[in-house]
Amino acid sequence: MNNIEKYNKVFMESLGVTEEQLAGLEYTGVDSWDSVGHMNLIACLEEAFDIMMETDDIIDFSSYEKGKEILAEKYDVAF
Amino acid sequence: MVNLDTILQQPVYGTAHAEKTALLADTLRELTLYHDSNCPEYHRILRAFGYTRKRIGAVEDHRDLPFIPVRLFKEYEMRSVSESELFKTMTSSGTTGQQVSKIFLDRQTSSAQSKVLARIMCEYTGKKRLPMIILDTSAVIKNRMMFSARGAGILGFQMLGADRVFALNEDMKLDIAALEAFLEKHSGERIFLFGFTFMIWQHFCKVLRETGERPDLSRGVLVHGGGWKKLADQHISTEAFREELKELCGITDVHDYYGMVEQTGTISMECECGHLHPSTFSDVIIRDSFDFSVCPHGKKGIIQVVSVLPHSYPGHSLLTEDEGVIVGEDDCPCGRKGVYFHVLGRLKNAEIRGCSDTYAEKS
Fold first, then answer.
1. A18, A64, B173, B224: least CB-packed within 10 angstroms?
2. Which residues of B fall within a CB distance of 8 Å from A58?
């Protein structure tokens, strides 16, 4: 599984969304992505990519796209 | 407009009196003018108290800027951004029959609150996110009925943790198995503990006393808040609270904090010397309860809190319903600059409220 597949899988599993919903998905955009869901999502991503994110990056992680940008720029996850 | 990002670059505790006064005066004056233009209710309040834009614009000390009673957020829906910009609405703790404060947040304000909270907390827990033990029940964020200020507080702090466990299960019983497993998983690491003062005393400490369980939390740093009112009613002092925690689970690194939903993010933290310190991004002013003049250091009065963060609602300068006293300024032995203070309790006749009250009826 490549990184984008892994990334998508974590999103779909932890937020219970379909692949079609991913593009443009924002924090609070679906009921499951509330502040509780956010921390679960972050924990799953950290485990999947074996990284530890900084608090500011968790706060800035505001959408599906923004998350990809953060992981690529700051945690060397190549998509 | 003063750029918030520029202010947030400042050291958390590094600004002494003159510099801090200048920084806060500029920022809060701009914020007052901004809210005057964007929140009709706030505008009417300022005019009623004789604050014109000209008068506000001429203010050079943030202590001369207008302040509004915190309870106005219960009576009016006040915001300075359009409805479409709203991101979430926070409500204060309030038991049945009480009105709750409604605080309207846009993305910018909400994100700034989280970032400032993280920056302040880093001063005590370090930059790395630590394994976190929440000294509360897991039900608090599961059950939407209980999802009040306590749940919101826990959610706000939990992003500082890297892995999390709740010390109490849904029946308010100590989850010793989960706790021991967590401690073993993170053996040798520093642990971040968070909880509400009253819940810690009334539930966590109580279960330890009753069960005889003594989990070793000596490598923990505990941050707790929510007020002392209930403990003061039971004649429990800060010293007794600390002593109990040390005896029951070995925690010695303990920090109380003072904060409220109306100014989320800019909390005042208790230092190693037992003093509460506002960060560079907020301040505490004590006012005389008869004429609202600024009290000199050492004289008790009503606590006014100011914060540079509230942008989506006019909550940057609030008169609380708490009584306090400034202990000193710029010279705390811990080295942090700015004023440092003590909270003495609720004002008499003020409505009962606070995080510890949300569980009041059942306890």
1. A18
2. 159
